[in-house]
Amino acid sequence: MQKTVYPSNLTPVDHPLNRSVTIEEIKSHLKKTKNKAPGEDNIDSTLIKQAPDEYLHLLSNLFTTCLMEGYFPLPWKSAVVTMIHKPGKDPYNVTSYRPISLLSHVGKLFERVLTQRLSSHAEEMGLLGIHQAGFRKARSTTDNILRLSEDILRNFKKKEHTLAVFFDIEKAFDKMWHNGLCYRLADSNLQIPLSIRNIITSFLHNRTIKVKVSTAISSPFTPEAGVPQGAVLSPLLFLLYISDIYYPPPTIGQVSQFADDLCYWTSSKCPKLAAKKLQKSIEEIETWSNMWRVKLNPQKTQCVLFTRSTRKNKKPIDLKLYGEAIKVEKEAKFLGVTFQKNMNWTSHIANIEREGRKRLNHLKTLCGRKCGASPQTVLKVYISYIRSLFEYALPAWITASPRQMNHLQRIQNLAIKMAYRLPKYISNHHVHSISGLASISSRQSIIGQRFMNRATRNPSLRKAVGQARWTTDTPMSIMLKLS
């Protein structure tokens, strides 16, 4: 993407990030605001949505002043954290609770204005990594899962092995270095005006958190690191913080990145040579992580040698992170998809089937013969609650065999019969004609076509789309035939 370069003689007022906030801009962001619990000020988002234009005019003046002064007001930085107990966990263990941070809705509305402007600026300037798919428009986890799947299967065609390392970053969002982010934003190449940098500095510092358990509230304390939980601006700040993470040259290896989920891989006909190339990339990311205080966990980092060969390697894979050996596994989970060394998707589909049948039992509670929900309601729940499992990142594992996909089709058959209270011996063809639902194989075709229409506009996938025309039996080539 070509970078936008703003004239050097722009005054702070002229800079696009500093333009005045309009009522129309506030209204557009209010439409996207969900009705959630309010913060300490008890101002609910529904009240702001129903407010007259006079009130929104005051808000626009307030937001514009904050932009010009580079100030994020203190009341918007006070969070009340409610602890939600995780089902089945020890209630006397602190880690058994999920913290939910409640912030001022007025402050979050201002964050939406900042996030929209800063995100557009970052995309225009090319500040975020090309392989970074987290929290970006027209990007998804499927993009990066597919890139890895496509590359491995293409390497199989060339009779090459693919060695991949799946990194685990310890509490990436909770331990982000505040001063490090402020230093990075001051880089002249980013062309972020001083007022916006001051707002971000003000946004990060002097925040207070109170923990609420039942009716008891703790004394306020100030976090010294990390981005605020529940804040609209936090994900984008994290992406900017890690935007210069090491990307190896294409001749050495490839990268897939979704926020803090990171995978490096390389290929070679010789596993030892692949390990040697990958170790260089690991050493580079070690240097980067030490400089920016990002901690990689060697114990949870894994590597997998993807190969179709059944012969055992005479020399085991020897990769090290911070001097500790990285575990070599037969499979690894990346962004919710289980990758096996031979890429046959057996484990991934087994996991989906297990979870799908568990959710199918929940669906039974809606299907009472006398007072149950209507068939249309049950099917809507099935589509959103169960079928969504089958379709997550489907373009990446569309190479699964029809026999494997039939395991998921059986669950759909049972769900439809359950919705219409039909006996199990009714033919599946008749069941689908009644419900109007497409079969799992038909959904594969539909999703594949949709993905290919979007993939051509994605810079990180454009090259893979072009290469798919000359390959066979890879996800891209299969979807290209479908489209």
Automatic annotation (TrEMBL):
<dbReference type="Pfam" id="PF00078">
    <property type="entry name" value="RVT_1"/>
</dbReference>
<dbReference type="InterPro" id="IPR043502">
    <property type="entry name" value="DNA/RNA_pol_sf"/>
</dbReference>
<dbReference type="InterPro" id="IPR000477">
    <property type="entry name" value="RT_dom"/>
</dbReference>
<feature type="domain" description="Reverse transcriptase">
    <location>
        <begin position="65"/>
        <end position="339"/>
    </location>
</feature>
<protein>
    <recommendedName>
        <fullName>Reverse transcriptase domain-containing protein</fullName>
    </recommendedName>
</protein>
